[in-house]
Amino acid sequence: MMGDGMMADGNMWFGWGGMILIAVLVILAIAVLAKYLMKLVLWSFRFAIFAIPNFVSLKSNASA
């Protein structure tokens, strides 16, 4: 909607520049979020891989 208003003013470059800028910002935000999400997923996987066997062995040691 804002882009249409800018183009109606006849300043097309600013309209396109604004849209491109918004697109780049959105892509950057998604990339940063994806990076943090991947870190979270990797840490949770590491935690599961390392903690669950230790927990199971602790339980088996406690029962034995």
- Structural class, from secondary structure content? mainly alpha
Backbone shape = rod-shaped
Number of structural units classed as domains: 1
- Tell me the span between the first and last alpha carbons: 69 Å
Q: Indicate the radius of gyration in whole angstroms.
A: 25 Å
Q: What is the typical, i.e. mean, pLDDT?
A: 80
Number of strands: 0
Count the DSSP helices: 2
Task: Please give the share of residues in helix.
Answer: over 70%
Taking pLDDT < 50 over at least 5 consecutive residues as the criterion, the unreliable ranges are none
Offer a concise description of the structure.
Helices cover 92% and strands 0% of the residues. With 64 residues, the protein is mainly α.
Would you write up a description of this structure?
The protein has 64 residues and is an all-alpha fold. The chain has one domain. It is 92% helix and 0% strand. It contains two helices and no strands. The longest helix is centred in the middle third of the chain and has 52 residues, at 12-63. The chain is rod-shaped.
